[in-house]
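#lab-general

N.A. 3:47 PM
ok so I finally got the sequence cleaned up, no stray characters, all 208 residues accounted for. can someone with queue access submit it? mine expired

B.Y. 3:52 PM
send it over

N.A. 3:53 PM
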Amino acid sequence: MPNKRAAYASEHLSQLLDGIPDGGRILSENLPYGAVVGWPEVRSDGNPGLQTRFVIWPGAMAIALDEVTHEVYVVYQTREVPGTEIVTVELPGGGIDPDDTPFETASKELLEETGVVATDRSEWIQLLDEGGCRPIDGLVWTSQHAFLLINGRKIQEPADGETTTVATLPLSKLIDIDNQNGFKDPLSPYFLRRAQDWLKENRPDLLT
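B.Y. 4:20 PM
back already:
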């Protein structure tokens, strides 16, 4: 799949370059995960400059509530950072493969990373419109998606090769973690708040 994803990403980048000003080009790439694109500009002082954007592969996340406790399934993941490693708390999710929909990715990643499935398809809630969200267009071009599962059931351990620790935490605790700058990515807390808003309006009995 990585080779197929890389080919798809390369085609996507070529199409993207058609939509930016003349002179746009790929400055650096690490396909299929991302690339840096740039195009010339004239700055306000009249000097030449270069606009750049980092293009990230589109992805999908799952906010899954346990069917009994209603707490949110999270994974603790060891990540490399310059000079060391850190343990992060994350929502299940991943990059969308060329043949998958955002929903298929969210449900597949949830099963692989946590062993959790929906008790019924109707228990899934799409939190964003079909195009997903583009959280920081001024710096990064990407389309990210989020789905809320209001009744998740753990049926197995994480898939072989997953090096995560699975836990459940109250949604309010996860919001507190974000308020203390405990998340290492901007998307998880954003999606958690979207889920919280939906629950407040539609299923306040599931708030934890």
